[in-house]
Amino acid sequence: MPYLYLAIAIGAEVTATFFLTLSDGFTRRLPSCVTVVGYLTAFYALSQALRAIPTGVAYAIWSGVGTVAISVVSWIWLGQKLDMAAIVGMALIIAGVAVMNLCSGMSGHG
User: Fold this and answer.
1) C-alpha 74: how far from its chain's center?
2) What values do phi and psi take at 3, rounded to 5?
3) Which residue among 32, 33, 43, 98 has the highest number of C-beta atoms inside a 10 angstrom radius?
């Protein structure tokens, strides 16, 4: 269940960040409301995940997966460019999160 909360936190944060772009500096009502609700949902879900997942591990997953996800979402729906450096950087983020979870003692498993 904690990883489900973490997944909800990531999805809500990515949604909120996407709509933050569409809010035009909080001048458009609907995207602004989605942004606020999304961030509130993200932080609530993250707080629930942190009840069982170590903070460093949860934050690494949340921020790493969120960064990659919003980059891909922005590429698909907003036409933002992803050059080779960005793609390599995202691969390194994913690798770093994987190493933390699989090999580090931070996860509490090893």
Assistant:
1) 13
2) -75, -25
3) 32
Which string of b and e fits 40-77 if b means at least 16 CB within 10 Å?
ebbeebbebbbeebbeebbebbbebbbbbbbbebbeee
The full 3-state SS of the chain, as one line of letters, equals CHHHHHHHHHHHHHHHHHHHHHCCCCCCHHHHHHHHHHHHHHHHHHHHHCCCCCHHHHHHHHHHHHHHHHHHHHHHHHCCCCCHHHHHHHHHHHHHHHHHHHHCHHHCCC
Could you give the angle at which helices 55-78 and 29-49 cross, rounded to 10 degrees? 150
Distance between CA atoms of residues 94 and 98, nearest Å: 6
Chain segment 58-92, per-residue pLDDT in tens = 998 999 999 999 999 999 999 999 999 999 999 99
Q: For residues 18 and 39, give the distance between their C-alpha atoms in angstroms, rounded to a whole number.
A: 11
